[in-house]
Amino acid sequence: MTGKSFDPPITQISVEELAQKLASNDASIQLVDVREPQELAIASLERFVNLPLSEFVEWGDEVPTMFNPHAETLVLCHHGVRSAQMCQWLVAQGFTNVKNIAGGIDAYSLLVDPSVPQY
């Protein structure tokens, strides 16, 4: 073993692509925000379901009934690290169209909508 991960790479989308998808009002897209409630109090985007990673034991078993495993699922966090972890987990659960939002809400604030507060 070389110590390298053999997990398939997670597909990423840019915050600009996210903005286009949000503007399209496509109701079939599933939006998941894995940040903590105190982070959402500072900055959030509409239509995202909040599933804080720290509360995984509370919602982990419900994910298969909450979401369609074959629908496009976009995952957001502050910078893209926690959302990438969530993406890996969703893929392991059988989700087939999962995308990490590169740069997270921080990049969204910088590159798309400066009215979204940075923290």
Automatic annotation (TrEMBL):
Transmembrane segments: none
Residue ranges of every copy of the Rhodanese domain listed in the record: 25-117
CDD domains attached to this UniProt entry: RHOD_2
Gene Ontology MF annotations: transferase activity
Highest taxon in the source lineage: Bacteria
SMART domains from the UniProt entry: RHOD
InterPro entries: PpiC/parvulin_rotamase (IPR052204), Rhodanese-like_dom (IPR001763), Rhodanese-like_dom_sf (IPR036873)
Protein name: Rhodanese-related sulfurtransferase
